[in-house]
Design goal:
Elements: H1 2-9, H2 18-42, H3 49-60, H4 69-89, H5 94-111, H6 121-128, H7 132-153
Helix pairs in contact: 2-3, 2-7, 3-7, 4-5, 4-6, 4-7, 5-6
């Protein structure tokens, strides 16, 4: 029994350097501060929970394919479009929300713009009743701002390449 449990509790992430981990945390603070500042300045609901998960990828795992700008922007676009349309067509239908999450995942995978935090956006669409234009504006502007902060942040020592560059 214990032998089988080891597979569940074994850590697969390699150890890193404390300075890099602290820098990652500081980057997330900067990104959330920027998002919160935009929310206060505009009165729009920019502080969405999925953005916290995006910060984990952008600042903690910037080399992950799931953290690249095309994935972040594309994943959020797909999710906002599918989530908003499902909420508009089937308001209050929890089953439609579940289907919208599954459809969002399938379309992100087909388009190769998978960004796991975006999978929560259809649930945000159903829970918040945001209009399609508002949800699109918030996720597009918020994710673009976070990417811009990540690009600048990863240029500070200890530097990391972000976004990844294609080898030719």
């Amino acid at each position: 029994m214990i032998k089988h449990l080891r597979h569940f509790i074994q850590r697969h992430e390699p150890p890193g350097q404390a300075l890099s981990h602290l820098k990652s945390g500081c980057g997330a603070v900067l990104a959330m501060t920027g998002i919160g500042g935009v929310a206060v300045a505009t009165g729009l609901p920019f502080l969405l929970a999925p953005f916290g998960a995006t910060a984990v990828l952008l600042f903690g795992q910037p080399k992950s394919p799931l953290a690249q700008p095309a994935n972040v922007l594309g994943g959020y676009f797909v999710a906002a479009l599918i989530g908003s349309l499902a909420a508009w067509l089937f308001p209050g239908a929890w089953l439609a929300a579940a289907v919208a999450v599954g459809l969002t995942i399938a379309v992100m995978l087909i388009l190769r713009v998978t960004h796991p935090p975006a999978g929560a956006i259809p649930l945000v669409a159903f829970a918040s009743h945001f209009s399609l234009p508002l949800l699109m504006a918030v996720v597009s502007a918020g994710s673009a701002l976070m990417i811009a902060i990540a690009v600048l942040h990863h240029r500070l020592p200890p530097t990391q390449q972000y976004p990844l560059r294609l080898e030719r």
